Amino acid sequence: MVKRNVNFNPGPAALPLDVLNIVREELINYQSSGMSILESSHRAKEFEAINDQTIMLVRELLGLGADYHVLFLGGGASTQFALIPMNFIGDGKMAAYVDTGEFAAKALKECQIVAKAHVAFSSKEEQYRRVPKMSEIKYPEDIAYLHVCSNNTIEGTQFREFPNTGSVPLVADMSSDIASRWLDYRKFSMIYAGAQKNLGVAGVTLLLIHDDFLAKRKNGLPTILSYKTHADKKSLYNTPPIFGVYIMKLVLEWIKSKGGLAGMGKINAAKKDLLYGAIDAAPDFYKGTAEKDSRSWMNVTLRLPTQDMEDKFIADAKKEGLIGLKGHRSVGGIRFSIYNAVSLVDIQKAVEFMGKFHKSC
Amino acid sequence: MVKRNVNFNPGPAALPLDVLNIVREELINYQSSGMSILESSHRAKEFEAINDQTIMLVRELLGLGADYHVLFLGGGASTQFALIPMNFIGDGKMAAYVDTGEFAAKALKECQIVAKAHVAFSSKEEQYRRVPKMSEIKYPEDIAYLHVCSNNTIEGTQFREFPNTGSVPLVADMSSDIASRWLDYRKFSMIYAGAQKNLGVAGVTLLLIHDDFLAKRKNGLPTILSYKTHADKKSLYNTPPIFGVYIMKLVLEWIKSKGGLAGMGKINAAKKDLLYGAIDAAPDFYKGTAEKDSRSWMNVTLRLPTQDMEDKFIADAKKEGLIGLKGHRSVGGIRFSIYNAVSLVDIQKAVEFMGKFHKSC
């Protein structure tokens, strides 16, 4: 048995050991093809099968039909911050953004470089401790789209419901909570997510774009920057990030084996209940930073009474094999990132450590 | 022993078995870190060391100093077709392009979408059977840069020398021949190359940008589309394609063990001599498609007397474990892609098969 740490990294993050074992097993000779999947042409039947199966698994697990294009692109979610306004905001139009954290604000800023943006809500003045109530989101009716970030990785907040936007397309960055729970993904005209948190490894970004939204795109962009190019070729216009798509397929199959998104959501609910329970049981020592209604099920952020204690917490945890607990450099503190591949047993270990650490102080 | 095919895929392509074995060995527990490199944060010391070492290896092997930024980006070389003119052609200026094949023409076309382009040479009318003599390349003196594609993967041609452009920055797409031979890489203001041919796996593109050229960039681009962003952060502005950089490091170490680019170039020269020798020994049967002076050392393209014979050649070769030989769909015929990881022994097997096949016809 290999000694493995409990990995609370915020992304790239833990992968299911079952998935890593399959990757290892197949690495030199992929399914008797006489070569590694890393050496397969993207035009070979081996990879085309992976591409097609991954598209089908995404649609099946998220409850989407063929009216959604499923794309696998390089460049990270940050690239989409620029490409979304470039593709979808026509001359003289604008889009609206909900500003709930550092990444939401980055998306907004990129939009402002290429077009006009309306801020539909911001919790910046409240140190991003919460997401809005639906009634607080305000925007003009003729916008190109409304953009939200469903889970704020750095700040530890998450949307539990999403606005009904009627004819206004709703676009979501779901990098840090996609496929972690069941919800009506059909509410969204576009969803995008870097794979390195809940869907696999860094280097591939999943995009879901409804056909009606894609039809509203602008023309005249460089070929590679237009979503139409990739939608028309099922992400095979140029060489795709093959290994990332392959791992995404394995992770989706693993999620399916856990009962799909409903099953995954139950496990994630039990995990967050246990961890927030430990925080709330010692509120003078473990101080959750997000408002309770806005707490994320994926990134659990907290402070301790002093920074020295936080440093000791992180160092002591590491000795016990609990790693990746340092809060983002912009906010400090402690952060447990508990994506799909972190198990309930992992959380039990963390909670046990928290009790022990508190007593020792 | 695992049965491995001889892989002549044009990219993604063969990897050194030594590299695959290291990846497999380290996959579950990277250097006693208690996790896979696939699970490492890009801010962790494990990955920062890989990033720094890969930068140093690139500079060492290619003979470049700290005046070249070494970047690892997602999106493929095709993304650079758009980003280069977006970053470097100022208002009212233009760039010049040498049109020697399908990918060179794609780069030109993307430039024409965002700016003006001058065609400095084209062999399109000659079915791209050759690259230019240096004296044939003509362009106005005030262009932003001159763009060449050093090796034409589809057409099987390659530059053996490069123009002296004086104060005009020289930019090269070296996707299919980077690190395959020693040359003065310092002639270039910018070099870019998808990794999936000579440097590893799909999903990461190597960029080398001289500081003086970067200083000439335009401002006002979306953050993620500006090369300055990535140069300032050593490719760590957003999550990089971690696995691709890790593999590139292993491939560069493998190249170093072969005597660096001088050693690699000798091996590649012996490989192409053997393969072109077999073609030229039966010129009425094996017809090389590139003009002799322009022949590529990386992609050896040929036709047989009939398409039926070509189909049989590919099918019979496959039975002997020689795969990836079908010419690109746009030109047909046979193509041996013989990048760094294809060995001289592999070529001997191919040549032996060619002799046998010819006799059987």
What does this protein structure show overall?
Two copies of one chain form a homodimer. With 361 residues, chain A is α/β, with parallel strands linked by helices. Chain A folds into two domains: 18-257, Aspartate Aminotransferase, domain 2 (3-Layer(aba) Sandwich), CATH 3.40.640.10; 260-360, Aspartate Aminotransferase, domain 1. Helix content of chain A is 36%, strand content 16%. In chain A, the strands form four sheets. A seven-stranded mixed beta sheet of chain A has the order 2-10-9-8-5-3-4, sandwiched between helices. In chain A, helix 1 packs across helix 7 and helix 8 packs parallel to helix 10. Chain A starts with 5 loop residues before the first strand and ends with a helix. The mean pLDDT of chain A is 97. Chains A and B meet through helix 1, helix 3, helix 4 and helix 7 of A and helix 1, helix 3, helix 4 and helix 7 of B.
Q: Which tags fit this structure?
A:
Aspartate Aminotransferase, domain 2; 14 strands; 10 helices; seven-stranded mixed β-sheet; 361 residues; three-stranded antiparallel β-sheet; homodimer
